[in-house]
Design a protein that fits this description.
The chain is of the alpha+beta class. It has one domain: F-spondin domain (Immunoglobulin-like). It is 29% helix and 21% strand. The chain has helices at residues 42-50, 54-66; strands at residues 2-6, 9-10, 18-19, 23-27, 69-70. The strands form 2 sheets. Strands 1-4-5 form a 3-stranded antiparallel beta sheet, covered by helices on one side. It is globular and about 40 Å long. It starts with a strand and ends in a 6-residue tail after the last strand. This is Spondin domain-containing protein. Keywords: Signal. It holds the Pfam family Spond_N.
C-alpha cells in the first residue's frame, strides 16, 4: 500500500502565495497519478495550478469505488 499526501505552494500570478489543501489517500500500485515523462491527471493539474482539490478529491472517490484506493471519511 502506498500513502499519498498531495499539497503544493502556489505562486501563480495574480494570486496570493499560499499552501493548497492537503489531500490524502492510501492506494495500490495500480493507482497512477502521474508518471515521469507522462501527463498529470486533471485533478493533479488543478491542485498544482489553482490550489483547488475538488477534481482530485473526485478522482480519489472514483478510485475508492474501483477498489484501488482507500480514503478517510472526508472523501465521502
Amino acid at each position: 500500500m502506498i500513502i499519498l499526501v498531495l499539497f503544493c505552494f502556489l505562486t501563480s500570478p495574480g494570486r496570493a502565495n499560499h499552501w493548497s489543501a492537503i489531500i490524502g489517500a492510501s492506494h495500490s500500485k495500480n493507482y497512477v497519478l502521474w508518471e515521469y515523462g507522462g501527463y498529470a491527471s486533471e485533478g493533479i493539474k488543478k491542485v498544482a495550478e489553482l490550489g483547488s482539490p475538488v477534481s482530485m478529491e473526485e478522482e480519489i472517490r472514483q478510485k475508492v469505488r474501483l477498489g484501488t484506493a482507500v480514503c478517510t471519511y472526508t472523501c465521502y
